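Recall from the previous lesson that a structure prediction takes nothing but the amino acid sequence as input. Here we apply that procedure to site-specific DNA-methyltransferase (adenine-specific) from Catellatospora chokoriensis. The sequence below is the only information supplied.
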Amino acid sequence: MNYENSDMATNAVILGHIWRVDTSADEPGACEVRLGRTASSQDSEHPSDVTAATASGSLHPAPDTVWLDAVTTRGEGVSQEELAKKGYLTSSGIRGKRFGDFELLELGSTTVATLAKAGLDFTVAASVPFPCTRYRPPKKPGLTRPDSVYLHRVGSRLLPVAVAEWKDKSRLRSEDEDLEAAEQAVVAALSMGVNIAITTDGRRFRYIDAAASAAAGEIVEYQEVRDLAPGVLADLYRGESGLVRDPKALAENVWQTVWHATKAEPKDCLLTFVEIFMLKFLSDNLPFSVLPADYRFDALLPDEESFVGQKGKTQIEYYVSHIRPKIKEIFVERLPVDDKVVRAVFGLENESLNSTTSIINGFAFLRSSSNEAPSSYNRTFCEILQSFQDFGALTNIEPEFKLRLYEMFLRRSAKQQRLGQFFTPRNIVKAMIKMAQLNKLADDAVVLDPAAGVGGFLLEPLLFSDALPGNVRFEDGKPHQRVKLIGVDVDKDTNILAKANMLLHLAESVRDPSTTPSALNQAMANTFILLNGNETLGALEYPPRDSVDVILTNPPYVTQGSAIYRKEMEHSKGLRNGVFLKDYYDNGGLGVEALFLRYISGALRPGGIALVIVPLGLLNRTARLMKSNLLSECNIVGSIQLPRGAFFNTAQPTYILILEKRRVPNQHRPAVFCGLARTIGETLDHERVATPGENDLADLAELFVHFRANPASKVDRATPYEGSRIAKLVPSAEFGADERWDVIRHWSDDEYVALGVRAETIDTADFIKLAEDTLVELLDELRQAREEIDRLTAGEMTSLSLSNSRYFQIRSGVRIRNVDLRENPGNIPVYSVFTRQDTIKGRIAHNWLTERYIRPELFPSVTVMATGASAVGTVFTRENGCVVTDDVVLVQPWSRRDERDWLRYRLAKKLEVPADEISDEELDEVDPLTFTSYDAVNADALPSEQIDLNYLAVALGRTIAQGGYLYEAKLYTKRVSQLSIEVPVLADGSFDIVRQRQIADAAKRLDNIRSRLEEAGRWSKSVRLA
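The prediction returns the following tokens.
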């Protein structure tokens, strides 16, 4: 485009014509354009005036004045260019992106006036009768630029039905910002004459009735809480918004009808519901060429007399004899898994692996009879058919419907049978998918769920824009997946439910005539793998090896009776994917979930991540071998506590444990992201009412993603993350093999109370079962602890007095007042008299210490609280680099001479001089914060290793407890030096450092058991029985 400036006018050559642009027009951001002559034609030397006016302008020469918006001051082509660049302008007019039965234009720069001229069927409003209080609208409605416009094509007409304004979540934090966005959306909707205005930050959607808002003079919202999807928009457009189409009523109605008629098990009732649902779904979506009219749902709807007259059979008999076989013919029961990558994951690339299920096989009416369904069930069957017919067409099934379908049914049946094993609540699945960041996976990456159930972890990512939308596609009669999704289960019925679920999630592909049934069959066969050659082991029989990028799973919880799994492994013959199962799973853990953790740690590629639902008992259990083996392969990067009652089928507390496969054996262990989720976005009772404003788990998922993108530097204590009260970063050392892996211990009692966690309500039978399980497990661990400690302490011991300066140093800390901490804040932790090891008095500035010749501790130490009614005699170990106050006594298991020799050697090495040239004065000036060996000072680099520091803490604590010290008996240095400890020795009289460490480890595990007993007592006292 060329411009020639002349006072308040500009000549512009646009599309081969000279336009006169009058920038003195009254409308701010607009300009008047007058057509001059054709720049490329000799015939058009005489200028012609233009006389027509529009609200937004046009690039086509016209006989009048054209108004251009602020962007089109730089050329009306900018607005048109956006439509063209995004592919919306076609030879047949505007065509948007498909959005269910609608079309979507994603814009931002195009005015509504331009859209009207481009072919949308609406008239731009002359004015907008809405009193904006926060948003400043353009003076002319035609200059409004909506971010998104949703269209409905009716014959040759393209009608706008809704507009949306998309805002960054940082711009929707306050009520004023919410109001401004809502007013902007309403102005855009009224400018186009549509009723539906939407605002969103991508996570929260607000649906506004523009016409009602204009009439009321304030924002009026629709009663709709779901995320935006084609089904939601269809309901709003038809006036059916809200929860009218919630599947709960349908599921419960069918449940009641089937159960009362057949007295079938809840699982059979569920399978029956899904079978009839699939018949309706397929009838509404498959072309007649695939499912002819006689095999469709509608064929069963005539009254019984007419139907029998036509077919010679009742509806239920006809369904069993004709329609069921036809569906199984379309969706075959036996099909080889043809994806070599999938087979290779399990080490079966050179062996056959077959899918042996269809999408239906659970008809309770048929199961109630050994052969064919009796006609006596026909009336009930017809009632169910009518319920589905009344519910409406199952064509455009919006995501919420797909996700809630099984969930609603399972709520109804969970109390009668543990069907929850099939299902992880949708809000938990969604958060775990968010944390997995599947959208960042490379092509051909593998996502696995070894306990897939109905497939939520693998199918829901297809619905989320930040996960794997469009991951499954069909080309040339074959399925393709950018990222391989693999779900394994041992149960045939569950495998059927998963396949049916997959069809629902691929509804648009099912509806597409170019998608063949064989391609759908192959997609399901390659995705949901039935491994039931050994029905006890299931997925555990074929463990993947270093081949999976992401694992998302909720494995079964079984501790009692789990020995049968190990017996099966002992009797297993030959190799499975290159390993002997007995040896591969010999990790010392109790319960099936421990076996699955071994499966998971071996399956991940280096750098791969796993998010696993585990019971609290697994994390708290004193299973040192299992934990150390897991840590040898993986880092723990996250541990998130879920609220009790989060799952339908269990009241026991559960966690999301997040693991990352170590890239190299000596890889640094990162800080652990710990979270306390009090809420999950819905009530935790039987009804599960949505509470989108109360979702700690969603907030924690966002924080975890931020944490992964911005790795924290090393933390030395539990530290609140990003100012959150429910998230902390915890040192990796707190998640060692001898530690508990739960998170509540990293919140103080005051912090926990401040979170406002309410006392939970639990069914009496569930309480008794939970209490029994907890006590049985704790009693078993106490028995093991007693046997271990008895064995370790039965050996030879010797008594050592702490006054023996050959082996010990004893001294008090330094005086640091509260006012000193307030006036000189810094990074050096200061410990004083407290009953919790992680409690600090404060942090003080290093320069303040230096000015007073106070040096932070160069070595770790054992500390004894010298005073305090409840704290006196409490023993802790403290890290180096800290300072302790003068009411705390420090004990270190080496002599003063050993310490100075160690320092002299290290300093001489640093200065590259002989050790004997280092004076005592130079040693006294060594600062642990600047000494280069400071970071290397640890248990493997101490002045003496004859007495283990952790053992010293255990032995000293036992001596103090036996002495019965109370507040009156203060334990200052003189009194501590009079104490003695028992130390294990070898046959030659030397100190047995190995047995010391074993005793210290055993004592730590016993402390964990004691704390769990205490927590169980508090829980038992606080819980309310229903």
